[in-house]
Amino acid sequence: MTPTRGFTGWHMTGILIAFFGVIIAVNLTMATFATRTFGGKVVENSYVASQQFNRWLAEARAQKALGWQHAVTLGSDRRVGVTLGVAGKPLAGALVSAVARHPVGREGEVAVRFVSAGPGRYESDYPLPAGRWYLHLEVVRGADRAAFIETVQ
């Protein structure tokens, strides 16, 4: 009969070191990915933003009362198209502008200007850079104002 080696304290030490080593390595990897892809800032000052909440709600109610509908498209040439309407009719005579923001802040903001392409139809005057963007649209017609956020890719 050959003698068998038993489970020793060194075996347990090796298992514990391997176990916690994997946990630490995964945590460091995830922390590295998190800090490289998200700047962590949603608003400049959360207290100041919280003081604007009621005004934002009032603006949202006023915008909803306008009844404006919108549709955003991205052409094969990466030009952004915006179609505006109210009660099924084109919304003509509006001024449309936008700011395109990268979702994780890796790219700088891009100001997007629109020109009229027909009744209720507006098209950006130059293409949007490649990638996914949040488009913060602002539509003004007379004293009426509306803001929309859309994702384009």
UniProtKB/TrEMBL annotation:
Its domain of life reads Bacteria
Q: Does the keyword Membrane apply?
A: yes
Keywords carried by this UniProt record: Membrane, Transmembrane, Transmembrane helix
Listed transmembrane segments: 12-34
Show the InterPro entries listed in the entry.
Answer: FixH (IPR008620), FixH_proteobacterial (IPR018037)
Tell me the protein's name: Nitrogen fixation protein FixH
**Originating organism:** Sphingomonas parva
